Amino acid sequence: MQPFGDRSGVVIEPMLTDQWYVDAKTLAKPAIAAVEQGDTVFVPKNWEKTYFEWMNNIQPWCVSRQLWWGHQIPAWYGPDGHVFVEETEAEALAAAKAHYGAETALTRDEDVLDTWFSSALWPFSTLGWPEQTDVLKRHYKTDVLVTGFDIIFFWVARMMMMGLHFMQEVPFHTVYIHALVRDEKGQKMSKSKGNVIDPLDLIDRFGADALRFTLAAMAAQGRDIKLSTQRVEGYRNFATKLWNAARFCEMNECRIVPGFAPKAAAHTINRWILGEAERVTASLVAALEAYRFNEAAGAAYQFVWGTFCDWYLELVKPLLNGEDEAVKAETRAVAAHVFDRILLLLHPFMPFITEELWAKTAEGAGIARASDLVLAPWPVADLTLADPAADAEVEWVIALVSEIRGLRAESNVPAGARLGLVLVGADDVAQARATRHGELIGRLARLSGIEFAAAAPAGSVQLVIGGVTAALPLGDVIDLVAERKRLEKEIGKADQELAKIAAKLGNAAFVAKAPPEVIEEQRERSEETQRSRGRLAEALARLAVGV
Question: At 547, is the pLDDT very low, low, confident or very high (cuts 50, 70, 90)?
Answer without folding.
Answer: very low
